[in-house]
Every structure is written in C-alpha cells, then in structure tokens.
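Thread amino acids onto this structure.
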C-alpha cells in the first residue's frame, strides 16, 4: 500500500469522502482549498484524508475514510499518523480534527493517535446539516474538537 497526494487532474474519491462527511456541498468546498491524500493498494483507492490550512501554523484533518471492507485493520490509524507526519514536514505547529458526539470509535481513535479534546462546538451538526444523523443510537448534534501539538 502507498499513501500519496492526489494527482492534479485526478478526481477525488467522492464515495469515500462522503463516508466521513454526508454533506457533498461541504466536501466539494473544502476539497478545493485543502490537500487530498489517498491510500492505494493494487491500483485501488482504499483510503483518503484531506488536510486543510485553517489559521497560521494550523492545519485541520477535515476528512478521513477507509473503504468499508478494510475497516478495523489499522489502516485508519496509519492514515492519521501519515497526516500528522505530512503536517509536521510542512512546518505546521498544530493539527486539529473534529468529530460528532455520536462517533464513539473515532473519538477513541483520535485519542489513540495523540489528540487531546480541546472543546465542543455545540449544535454544529444541527446548524450545518439538513438531515438528522444517528450513530450508535445517539443523535449527532455536537462536534468534539481535538488538537495535537506537532
Ligand atoms: N472503542 C475503542 N477503540 C476503538 C473503537 C471503539 N468503539 N473503534 C475503533 N477503535 C480503535 C481500534 O481499536 C484501533 O485501535 P488499536 O489499534 O489500539 O486497536 C483504532 O481505533 C484504529 O482502528 P483502525 O483499524 O486503524 O481504523 P479503521 O481502519 O477502521 O479506520 C475510520 C477508522 C474511522 C477511518 C473508518 O472506520 C472509516 O472510514 N469510517 C467511516 C468514515 C468516518 O467516520 N470518518 C471519520 C469522520 S470523523
């Protein structure tokens, strides 16, 4: 498997990006401003992440996804570690990420990758998403914010 930057004229893997973020409008908007990286194995795109510069010296991991058939094999962790190393090599001092209050696995995963919780954006998903989102029997309302010094 190789993790590489998306080529200039290559289409982003929209199905994968929409796994992590159901809003096509938001995905299309940040994909234009951010840098998209893909994990490729035997010519197939099996994972993706997007880094978006937000403030001076700060970058946000705005999307990360692995194809359903490869979940739970350590690929998500590998992609997050790659994103951290890319951000470091580009001179950023802080990397941030946010996830829903209902995304129990992701909340565990980000902490296992060294992120600390810095805040909660109350009602973020109510304000920005037209459809109600439920996961693990919990309504996704608030965005849990994480940060890591690089
Ligand atoms: N409780 C505790 N730990 C959990 C957990 C849970 N409910 N769910 C996952 N984890 C842990 C795993 O145990 C593993 O830790 P370990 O290495 O110490 O065992 C760690 O998270 C990473 O697992 P990994 O196999 O690398 O994750 P993955 O390849 O399945 O990728 C996602 C994780 C989130 C990228 C993947 O599930 C995905 O694409 N989901 C859909 C898109 C999405 O939700 N993106 C994130 C939006 S915020």
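Threaded sequence (150 positions):
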């Amino acid at each position: 498997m190789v993790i590489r930057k998306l080529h200039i004229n290559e289409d982003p893997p929209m199905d994968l990006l929409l796994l992590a973020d159901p809003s096509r409008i938001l995905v299309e908007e940040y994909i234009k401003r951010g840098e998209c990286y893909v994990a490729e194995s035997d010519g197939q795109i099996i994972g993706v992440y997007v880094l978006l510069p937000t403030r001076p010296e700060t970058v946000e991991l705005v999307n990360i996804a692995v194809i359903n058939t490869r979940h739970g094999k350590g690929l998500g962790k590998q992609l997050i570690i790659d994103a951290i190393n890319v951000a470091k090599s580009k001179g950023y001092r802080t990397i941030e990420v946010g996830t829903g209050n209902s995304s129990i696995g992701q909340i565990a995963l980000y902490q296992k990758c060294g992120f600390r919780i810095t805040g909660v954006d109350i009602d973020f998903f109510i304000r920005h998403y037209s459809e109600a989102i439920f996961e693990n029997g919990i309504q996704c309302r608030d965005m849990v914010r994480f940060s890591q010094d690089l």
